[in-house]
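Input C-alpha cells:
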C-alpha cells in the first residue's frame, strides 16, 4: 500500500494492493499464474507490471532444467534490496521449484514468506492471512481449480489456456514432472465444458487445452460413458463461438484413434500438433524410458498426416542424454529430416536430482554442445522452409494485439505463426482470412484477403 493510500480518510476505499507475478517455464504456469491472480483479486490485490511498486511478489517457478531452478535463486537475490526498503513486502515462491525444494527455499532465502506447490494454489489467500502453514506442498484430494475463484465479469483476450489434465505417469528417465506435478489427474468433463463456455462468454474464441500429458486425458462423459481426449474435443467443438481449439503437450503413446480422427473431422481443431519425440535413436529412447521406437513415431506421424494432410508438426529434443553416441545423434538428425518439423524446441540434457538418469555418467559437455548446434541449425532450416511455404496461402488469423507500428495488427495463424498485417479494418478478437506475403525470422506478414 502506498503512503497516499494510508493517509486517506478511513471511510474512503483504500487503494488496492499490488501483486507482481513472474512466470517461468511452460504454458501451464502461465495459466496457473492467471488463476492465482484472480484468487488474489478476492483479497484486494490487482496485478502490476512494475515489481518496484508491488506489495506482493510471486515467482511461479519451473524445475524442468537446472538453469530454470538457478534462475529463481538469482531473482530472489535481486529482491533483497526491495524487501529491505519495504519490510511489509510479501514474497512468495510457487510452482515446481517450490514443490521440489519446499523448506530449502526459505532456508536459503529467508526473505521468502510463502512457498506453495502447484497443487495448493487455492490456499494462497489463507496462507497470506496466516490461516494456513506458510510452506504448503502436499498433493490434496480435491480439485484446486474448484476453489480458485474466477472473475466472471472481466473480458478476456481472444486466446486463452484451459488446464484439463495435470501430472504425468510416464516417468521418462530425465524428467522431474512426475515428481513435481504428481500423478496424472484429469479434470471432469462438466468442469472443462463449463469453464470453456464461460471463457467464450467473456470474449474468448480460441482455447488451448493444457496438460503435462494432455492427450492422456480421460473422464466420465455427459452420457455416463468413459470419454477419451478426442471425444472431449468434439464436445468442445459444439460450443457456439469457440472457433479454434489447440492442445499441448502430448505423448506419442497416447495418440488414440479417436484423437487422430478428431484431427480429420473437427474443423475447429487447428492443423498443428506438438508431439515431443526427444530422440531418434531406439537405444536412447529405451534408456529414456519413452516406451516407443523411432519407427513407431514415424508410423504415427504418417497416420496423423493421412487424417490431416496440412498438419504442422513440432517437437522437443534432448541432446547429449547419458550414453548418446555419434550414431545415436545421427539417428535423431535422420528422424528430423524424415518428419520435417514446423519448429521445435531442443535442449541440452540437464541432470535432475531424483530422476533415474541423474545417476548415469554424462557425456562430454562440448560434444553435446556441438550436437545441439548441429541439430538446431537443421531445425532452423526446417522452420524457415515451413514459413516460406506459407507465402501465397490464405490462412485464418485471430487478431490479438496492435503492432508497434501504428496501423499494424498482430494475430496468430492457424499454424500458430505470428502474422503482422497493416490494416485499419480489423479489431482485437477478429478472425479474418489473410494472404501471407512475406516471411521474417519468427513471424509472417500478410494482407487481408478480399
Ligand atoms: N534435460 C533437458 N531437457 C529436458 N526436458 C525435460 N527434462 C529435461 C532435462 N532433464 C525437456 C523435454 C521436454 C521439455 C518440456 O523439456 O524435451 O519435452
Ligand atoms: Fe516428463 Fe513429458 Fe516424459 Fe511426462 S511424458 S515424464 S512430462 S517428458
Amino acid at each position: 500500500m502506498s503512503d497516499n493510500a494510508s493517509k486517506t480518510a478511513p471511510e474512503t476505499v483504500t487503494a488496492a494492493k499490488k501483486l507482481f507475478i513472474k512466470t517461468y517455464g511452460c504454458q501451464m504456469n502461465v495459466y496457473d499464474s492467471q488463476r492465482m491472480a484472480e484468487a488474489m483479486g478476492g483479497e484486494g490485490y490487482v496485478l502490476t507490471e512494475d515489481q518496484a511498486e508491488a506489495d506482493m511478489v510471486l515467482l511461479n517457478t519451473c524445475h524442468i532444467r537446472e538453469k530454470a531452478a538457478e534462475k529463481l535463486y538469482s531473482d530472489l537475490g535481486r529482491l533483497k534490496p526491495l524487501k529491505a526498503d519495504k519490510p511489509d513486502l510479501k514474497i512468495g515462491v510457487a510452482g515446481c521449484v517450490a514443490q521440489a525444494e519446499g523448506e530449502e527455499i526459505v532456508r536459503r532465502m529467508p526473505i521468502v514468506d510463502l512457498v506453495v506447490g502447484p497443487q495448493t494454489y487455492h490456499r494462497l489467500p489463507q496462507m497470506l492471512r496466516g490461516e494456513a502453514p506458510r510452506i504448503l506442498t502436499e498433493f490434496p484430494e480435491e480439485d484446486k481449480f474448484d476453489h480458485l475463484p474466477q472473475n466472471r465479469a472481466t473480458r478476456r483476450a481472444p486466446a486463452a489456456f484451459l488446464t484439463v489434465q495435470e501430472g504425468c505417469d510416464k516417468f521418462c528417465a530425465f524428467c522431474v514432472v512426475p515428481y513435481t506435478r504428481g500423478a496424472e489427474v484429469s479434470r471432469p468433463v462438466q468442469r472443462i465444458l463449463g469453464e470453456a463456455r464461460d471463457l467464450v462468454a467473456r470474449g474468448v474464441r480460441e482455447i488451448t487445452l493444457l496438460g503435462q500429458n494432455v492427450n492422456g486425458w480421460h473422464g466420465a462423459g455427459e452420457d455416463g460413458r468413459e470419454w477419451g481426449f478426442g471425444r472431449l474435443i468434439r464436445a468442445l467443438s459444439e460450443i457456439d463461438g469457440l472457433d479454434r481449439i489447440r492442445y499441448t503437450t502430448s505423448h506419442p503413446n497416447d495418440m488414440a484413434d479417436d484423437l487422430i480422427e478428431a484431427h480429420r473431422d473437427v474443423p475447429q481443431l487447428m492443423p498443428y500438433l506438438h508431439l515431443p519425440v526427444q530422440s531418434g535413436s531406439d537405444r536412447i529412447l529405451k534408456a529414456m524410458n519413452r516406451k516407443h521406437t523411432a519407427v513407431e513415431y514415424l508410423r504415427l506421424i504418417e497416420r496423423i498426416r493421412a487424417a490431416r494432410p496440412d498438419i504442422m508438426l513440432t517437437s522437443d529434443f534432448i541432446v547429449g542424454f547419458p550414453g548418446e553416441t555419434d550414431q545415436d545423434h545421427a539417428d535423431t538428425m535422420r528422424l528430423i529430416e524424415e518428419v520435417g518439423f514446423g519448429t521445435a524446441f531442443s535442449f541440452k540434457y540437464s541432470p535432475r536430482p531424483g530422476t533415474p538418469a541423474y545417476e548415469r555418467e554424462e557425456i562430454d559437455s562440448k560434444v553435446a554442445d556441438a550436437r545441439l548446434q548441429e541439430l538446431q541449425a537443421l531445425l532452423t532450416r526446417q522452420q524457415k522452409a515451413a514459413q516460406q511455404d506459407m507465402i501465397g496461402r490464405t490462412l485464418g488469423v485471430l487478431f490479438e494485439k496492435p503492432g508497434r507500428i501504428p496501423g499494424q495488427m498482430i494475430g496468430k495463424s492457424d499454424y500458430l505463426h505470428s502474422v503482422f498485417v497493416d490494416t485499419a479494418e480489423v479489431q482485437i478478437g477478429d478472425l479474418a482470412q489473410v494472404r501471407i506475403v512475406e516471411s521474417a525470422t519468427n513471424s509472417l506478414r500478410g494482407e487481408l484477403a478480399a
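Residues 1-12 have pLDDT under 50 and may be disordered. Residues 168, 170-172, 175, 177-178, 212-213, 251 surround iron/sulfur cluster (ligand 2) (CB under 6 Å).
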